[in-house]
Sequence to fold (563 residues):
Amino acid sequence: MKLNSAIAAALLATTGVYADDASKVETEPSSSIVELPTFTPTNLKAPFLEQFTEGWEKRWKPSHAKKDTKGQEEEWAYVGEWSVEEPYKYKGIEGDKGLVVKNAAAHHAISAKFPKKIDPKGKDLVVQYEVKLQKGLDCGGAYLKLLRDTKSLHQDEFSNTTPYVIMFGPDKCGATNKIHFIFNHKNPKSGEYEEKHLLAAPQATISKISELYTLIVRPNNTFTIKRGGDIVRDGSLFDQFSPAVNPEKEIDDPNDKKPEDWVDEARIPDPDAKKPDDWDEDAPFEIVDEEATKPEDWLEDEPLTIPDPEAQKPEDWDDEEDGDWVPPTVPNPKCAEVSGCGPWTKPMKKNPNYKGKWTAPYIDNPAYKGVWAPRKIKNPDYFEDKHPANFEPMGAIGFELWTMQPDILFDNIYIGHSVEEAEKFANETFFKKVAVEKALEDAEKPKSEDKPKSPSDLKFLDDPVLYIREKLDLFTTIFANDPIQAIKFVPEVPTAIGGLLVTIVALIGIFTMGGAAPEAAKKTAADAKEKVKEAKDKTAEAVSTGAENVKAEVNKRATRSQS
Fold:
């Protein structure tokens, strides 16, 4: 692996492009392909509306708390950094900034207080915001929390234990991919809170293009989740969450015990059944087929294997030291053309009288009483909340996240009571930018006619990483069968190796001889460089003659790269 890395670095040098230049090729913005609209702040009003314009630092405060990790020895702090900036991946609107998670594998927490507490009782509650995964998402969250309005709500102390009313948004790690909708419900009898999780939550969009997530909860206790403006889930707060909002009216009596004489076996072996007299448990499963006859073409006198007639005793074999040389054996070719060779024996066949071990047949159990279950009693903790959509007042919004991918961008947050206003806001922002972003993404995709037909068609500036990987892969594949042809057809790799050796030889000369003998070091490097030049000239001469000999290999790889 280290050698391949060194060769890759040498390939970079031989192409005349430095690593910095290669990264510029990969990350150079493509927004010039499409004319971008210019950001204009919205004139819409809402209880809370955030576009991360000037003065956002006064509203949003990072947390300096430590994460509650009960049962764990390691203590975590919210050290993840936040920034407000324009996206660098598929920018859809010029001047449009968002809140960005800046660190990978770090705990982040930030919150903003609402100008006035938001009380959703008797009103529609609409939660809407954009998420842009600029580096994708393998493992991490991008959800928001609406925090309960309490006197103890302090932004500096916002953490995973801060009471929240609703948690909503995408979360992915491995095979788990969902749009969370969790609400904290207060038990009217005990006063305790319990999280209610949406069952079978819809999947989040994992893309570098902006995505819009919308949650609508109505006073009639129904909800809707939208993704990109399209409905992906409808339902009721009563029957689509776990645990259920309202507990069962009756529960199993914890003091009820199954009687010792309770029979819950529905079927039993027939106690009156007896094994038939002609039942032979010892009869074998297979017997010799006495009716079988030897095939006419069976060669009993021919062995299954014979000494290899093409094998030759090695020239360095010494009978006195190594013993008598015995050629290896190979399958007898005569046996492949007939039914078989060697001694013939009658084959085995299934025994028609085989019955196996006898067991009594099963019958219905006359003493069966059924499946036992404890008796039901009234649930002492039962209550009925007819209005779970009457969430408690909310005082702030927060992002409390851990993610393996940085540069997650949040933008255009709407918290309010008007579905129509939220849709207008989305039309002004999301739908305007997402059309541009998709055009930019499409422009980056290579057209079918532009795809290289073989590694020899690759250009370094088009994709430096692919260029180096394919050249190394092709060289090693051909080298395994024919080193000469590998050098002829992929001269870039041996040239890079030669350049690498020149550098190593020169450095050895410098470090071993020090400053006292610079001329010797220069001579060593010059001699090595001259040898590389000669090899390079020979390689260039061989390229034209060696290409045809590996044409089949290239065609095979070209087919693989296109599939």
User: Anything to note?
Assistant: The first strand starts at residue 48 and ends at 50. DSSP finds eleven helices and 27 strands in the chain. The two ends are 27 Å apart (CA to CA). The first helix runs from residue 2 to 15.
